[in-house]
Amino acid sequence: MLSDGLGMAVRGLSPADLMLVLGMLLAIRLSSRLGVWAYAVLALPGTLAHELAHYLVATLLLAKPQFPSLIPQRTEHGWRLGSVAFRAGWLRSLPIALAPFALLPLALWWAVTWMAPSVGAVYFAHGWVVAALISASLPSSADFRIALPALSLMAIAAIVYALLR
Q1: What does the alpha-carbon distance between residue 110 and residue 87 come to, in Å, rounded to a whole number?
Q2: How far is CA 82 from the centre of its chain?
Q3: Of 136, 135, 138, 116, the residue nearest 127 (C-alpha)
Q4: Which of 30, 70, 71, 111 is the most core-located residue (most Cβ within 10 A)?
Q5: From CA 104, how far away is CA 102, in angstroms rounded?
């Protein structure tokens, strides 16, 4: 069962491991107060993984993605740390837009495999990567806007199915 494997993996982490990751998550979040470049640097491993997740799924779905951009850009709603442009209909756009969710198991794997057995500065570096992956695992608001048409249709289909059942 998936939840049993997840529970076993989390139990493989010590309280110090969990505190390190929480501290790094807080540091990434607070770094935005230092300016966009400080935040961009601390979030970089997660931003790279987030955009690569979009890129890889778009490539698998033949959506002709452009290589990810990782240069922060000012938008009308704030800053965008990265982006991947692709061409796909609303159905293929759903898994592409929600691809960053796959970073959560990657973060857990990284924590158990690389962070937990490490020591010293390497331990803290791995904690930073794990926290950045967790931070980047949620799709952005732009990702949700892209996924919304397919999610809406799926919700309607689920309601109709439940009513007809």
Answers
A1: 31
A2: 12
A3: 116
A4: 111
A5: 5
